[in-house]
Write a structure and sequence with these properties.
With 215 residues, the protein is α/β, with parallel strands linked by helices. It has one domain: 3-Layer(aba) Sandwich (Rossmann fold). It contains 8 helices and 5 strands; from the N terminus they run βαβααβααβααβα. The protein has a 5-stranded parallel sheet, with helices on both faces. The radius of gyration is 17 Å and the shape is globular. It starts with 5 loop residues before the first strand and ends in a 10-residue tail after the last helix.
Length: 215
């Protein structure tokens, strides 16, 4: 049995990753692909508890380095218990965020040294790397309007960040895409949904799903 493909979705808050993830799973299903949808931080019961710790706006200060370590702790659980086993079974995995999010948010956004992030990545998932990354690109002011209207008064630690923070995150993402143009597909998330889905389908088709779509 051949190893499955690993597809990640990236972008700032409000970029529409959840909507695109559902579309990607449906598209792959129509092409007879066994697919697993998951997310980060989270994806397992214990990793979801770590997610709550990372996102909640509590009274304790969480340093950028601590935030990074929590992200990789959750990621380690996720890779070991969900992502790697699914790929080894031949399933395709669609994941809402992965290590590129840490590079963009904690690295570019918070200023965490990239050498720490890359060291942790080599330790936590040396054999698991995305085959395809869909980067939903959106101006931060636009994305924050979407995210905060969705959250109401319950914005999490990231949704409550400044536009300037998300400008740095966006710049970090675009730099990652510039470095790895074969893996990244930059999609204008401000475009009409039908156009976004067309671009997503084109990127997925490049991965050569094993069968034609059902009629």
């Amino acid at each position: 049995m051949s190893r499955g493909r690993f597809i990640t979705l990236e972008g700032i808050e409000g970029a529409g990753k959840s909507t695109v993830a559902k579309f990607a799973v449906a598209w792959l299903g129509r092409h007879n692909v066994a697919v697993r949808l998951t997310r980060e931080p989270g994806g397992t019961p214990l990793a979801e508890r770590l997610r709550q710790m990372v996102l909640e706006r509590g009274t304790e200060t969480v340093s950028p380095a601590t935030e990074t370590l929590l992200m990789f702790a959750a990621r380690g659980l996720h890779v070991q218990n969900v992502i790697r086993p699914a790929l080894e079974r031949g399933e395709w995995v669609v994941c809402d965020r992965f290590t590129d999010a840490t590079r963009a948010y904690q690295g570019s956004g918070r200023g965490v040294d990239s050498s720490l992030i890359e060291t942790l990545a080599r330790v936590v998932h040396p054999d698991v790397q995305p085959d395809c990354t869909l980067l939903l690109d959106l101006p931060p002011a636009h994305g924050l309007i979407r995210a905060r209207s969705r959250a109401g008064g319950g914005a999490d630690r990231f949704e409550a960040e400044t536009v300037e923070f998300f400008e740095r995150v966006r710049a970090g993402y675009l730099e990652l895409a510039r470095r790895e143009p074969e893996r990244f597909h930059v999609i204008d998330a401000a475009a009409p949904l039908m156009e976004v889905e067309h671009r997503v389908a084109a990127a997925l088709a490049r991965l050569n799903p094993p069968a034609r779509a059902r009629k």
